[in-house]
Write a structure and sequence with these properties.
4-stranded antiparallel beta sheet
Length: 236
């Protein structure tokens, strides 16, 4: 089984799932900064997963951009969200949880955000929801049966995180200032950003057993479509 596999979705964004523990990943294509960041991890497993996620990201971006993985250069955004120095117009986002990572690629200038969480018990879900969810989202979560509540919590959580990544401001936006919802349907929300209102579409999707996934895309007028990449091109 490949360590980087496409997730089939009927949507303009392309999403790849990475099994971070499936293989040993060399660091040759990483930048000096990435290698230094990896070296700061105390535990070997965390270090190896960081390396795997960033090597996989470079491999995927190389396949889309035509630029050799080791030559890709990243520019930090104002809230730390990286962007490619070149080529312009290739939007991406990376998220990882335990042994699973997701890489999203979007067309044109439409900023994209993706988030993944490994499904697990959340005994403090109610307290977390009170701190980060809107009143309506808290009520919806409370109405879900106990057997599905952990999944509903992570559904809302990943949708919130994906939205924050799509607008590129991270924790600079109050997560209670916009609705993302606890169900997995596609919807549009509006997020206050720098005195304006950003329109963002959100959807949850199946990323494989044991994970909860969401993707968000900031709405723009760019409707171009990017050519799909075959799995074999990642290792060319």
């Amino acid at each position: 089984m490949s360590t980087i596999t496409p997730i089939t979705r009927r949507a303009p964004e392309h999403v790849w799932r990475v099994d971070l523990d499936a293989a040993t990943w060399g660091t040759a294509c990483l930048s000096r900064d990435e290698r230094e960041r990896a070296a700061r991890f105390v535990f070997a497993r965390d270090r190896e997963r960081f390396v795997a996620a960033h090597v996989a990201l470079r491999q995927v971006l190389a396949a889309y951009s035509g630029v050799t993985a080791s030559l890709l250069q990243f520019l930090p955004g104002k809230a730390g969200k990286p962007a490619l120095a070149r080529p312009a117009g290739l939007q991406f986002n990376l998220s990882h949880s335990q042994s699973v990572a997701l890489i999203a690629i979007a067309d044109g200038n439409a900023e994209v955000g993706v988030d993944v969480e490994v499904l697990r018990p959340m005994p403090d879900a109610e307290a977390m929801a009170a701190a980060y969810f809107t009143d309506a989202e808290q009520r919806a979560l409370a109405a879900v049966g106990p057997e599905l509540r952990d999944r509903a919590f992570f559904t809302c959580w990943t949708r919130k995180e994906a939205c924050l990544k799509a607008v590129g401001l991270g924790l600079g936006v109050d997560t209670r200032s916009f609705e993302a919802g606890v169900d997995e349907g596609t919807c549009e929300t509006r997020i206050p950003v720098d005195g304006e209102t950003a329109r963002v579409t959100i959807s949850s999707f199946d990323g494989g057993d044991g994970v909860v996934c969401a993707i968000a895309r900031r709405i723009s007028n760019d409707t171009g479509a990017r050519r799909p990449i075959h799995e074999s091109e990642l290792y060319a």
